[in-house]
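Support reply, case 0932

Customer input (verbatim):
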Amino acid sequence: MDLVQVIVLALIQGVTEFLPISSSAHLILPKEILGWPDQGLAFDVAVHVGTLLAVVMYFRRDISALIRGWLQSVAGKGLSVDGRIAWYIAAATIPAGLVGLFLGDFIEANLRSTAVIATTTIVFGIILAVADRLPSRIKELAQLTLVAALIIGLAQALALIPGTSRSGITITAALFLGFKCTDAARFSFLLSIPIIVLSGGYKGLELAMAPAGVDWFSIILGVALSGISAYLCIHYFLSFINRLSMMPFVVYRLLLGALLIVFIL
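Our regenerated output:
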């Protein structure tokens, strides 16, 4: 990749990883418009590392509290709210992990087409719009139950279909379950940590077994740009939805899906 491609793709990945607008839909656009080649496995690992560092840094206090609560529960010192949420995050990660393990190769081979991405971008955007209009979104994260966590985890598994958006579908599921928008987003971001670790770790193993050399300048730049853009994205997204709604993202998804359909035709 040349420098422009590295910068553009790293910023796209960083910004779209946590917004409900589908990173895969955006990463396919440069290929369609500019004819860019696939960014390669090493760069995929780099931007995963960048977005992981961003979410861990932003939620470092939450993560510290979750780890302390989990350790206390393991030591038999009682189950606090943080400990319970930590267990629920682990449970909610299982569905996506299993789907990725057993169906990941099939999805990669058969569902990464522009037609699929355009369809899921539009369909799940409309579903997000419906969830955003529900009047009874009053629950806070402390009210999360195991059943609710598993439902959100099952929704996250759907995000393996390109164009769905991991953050988009998990926030949608939480909104349908009655959670406030900010609490839905917060749980979605915390839930992203183990799945990014699993996905990045799997890609890292593939990279370790690959015979090709690594362009370390592109890797380091990709980590830095995706990490910084993802951190800023999380901060401003949480501030934005606290004052407004999800509808601007719904409209954006519909326009993006329509643009992809234009390329198909």
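We compared this against your earlier run and they match. Two observations from our side: Residues 138 and 180 are 5 Å apart (CA to CA). DSSP finds eleven helices and no strands in the chain. Please reopen the case if you see a mismatch on your end.
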